Amino acid sequence: MTPHPPPKQNLRVILPSYMTEYKNETFKDGLLNGKVVFCTGGAGSICGRQVEALVALGCNAVITGRNLQKTEARAAEMSKIRTGAKVIGLSADVRDIKAMQSAVETCVKQLGRLDFLICGAAGNFLAGIDNLSANAFKTVIDIDVLGSYNTFKAAIPALKQSKGRVIFVSATLHYNGNPLQAHVSAAKAAIDALSQSVAVEFGPFGITSNIIAPGPIAGTEGMSRLLPKEMNDATNKAIPLQRQGDMNDIADGTVYLFSPAGKWVTGQILIIDGGAWHMKSSALPYPEVVLGEIGLPDDVKQRPSTKSKL
Predict the structure, then answer these.
(1) Residues 198-230: pLDDT tens digits?
(2) Sign of the alpha-carbon torsion through 80, 55, 90, 301
(3) How far is residue 123's CA from residue 136's CA, in Å, rounded to a whole number?
(4) What is the pLDDT, as a whole number, of residue 51?
């Protein structure tokens, strides 16, 4: 008589604290083994968590940013998420096509391939059109739109080789008019259009292209710079699900689009905002903030810095 194997035991592994930031039991360990992700803005909060999720599930990664020290430090942290993970931090300005080509070449040379591309580098600040210089407007367009284009353009050969997948990180600002956000709204609308073109032109090569449009995400630099602290509770109440999102919500959407479950999804916009855009209203007092009857709070950023931090 053949003995039955002993029943499997449910063993829960206690992970170090740095490995528990992203963990969703929906996705199996090793789901993305052998894949490589390249992400611009990967040292930031949202894009960083996207990459962390992918690394946890098996990916190796390259992240880029303007600040080399910050980017390398974040890459070193990410490499500890999974035993054997390789994460490389590079300094590259997305506005410079040659810099992006060099970064992609480094990715392929050191990690062997490029399967997933996240175009996430972006800039934002609050400014009305009256006080928004042409140079400031151009800076946001250059980082968001030209930067996304340059990143994808540089990655085309590697993506064709792997039949890879692309995510452009956008927003919902341009679905309605928003005061003090004309520059960002224009940039994100252009990114949405770019993704649609990529989906159509590169679908025959097996490449997918989709948008992730985050709503208000708590704990991010963007929200801390743009949302007055006293408006936090009101913002939560205005969202159908009654809370701001967290970075893992965006990471989950990223895993879905890059997983086998997303293999036939392309040319789409995945809005992850708790239904917020359906109840869209400005967090700033309107029309007072436009008419100059009320000043912007001290805890929000009103002007762009002279040098981009991305």
Answers:
(1) 999 999 999 999 999 999 888 777 666 666 676
(2) negative
(3) 10
(4) 97
Query: What's the pTM?
Result: 0.87
Among 33-42, 232-241, 291-300, which is the least confidently predicted range?
291-300
**C-beta neighbour count of 106 within 10 angstroms:** 16
Q: Which residue has the higher pLDDT, 126 or 100?
A: 100
* Mean confidence (pLDDT) of the chain: 88
Q: What is the pLDDT of residue 155?
A: 98
Most distant CA atoms of the chain, gap in Å: 87
Q: Which residue has the tokens 């250059």?
A: 142
Count of positions (residues) in the chain: 310
Catalytic residues: 170, 188
CA distance 212 to 255: 11
Give me the residue label for tokens 């341009």.
174
Alpha-carbon gap, residue 115 to 42, rounded angstroms: 16
Write the DSSP symbol of residue 177.
-
Q: How far is residue 212 from each of residues 22, 82, 165, measured CA to CA in Å?
A: 18, 25, 13
User: At 237, is the pLDDT very low, low, confident or very high (cuts 50, 70, 90)?
Assistant: confident
Backbone phi, psi, residue 184, to 5° = -70, -40
Contact 116/38 with Cβ under 8 angstroms?
yes
Q: Are 210 and 116 in contact (CB under 8 A)?
A: no
| CA-based R_g, the chain, Å | 20
Cα atoms in the 13 Å half-sphere on the side-chain side of 129: 6
Contacts of 254 (CB under 8 A, 6+ apart): 50, 53, 54, 118, 167, 212
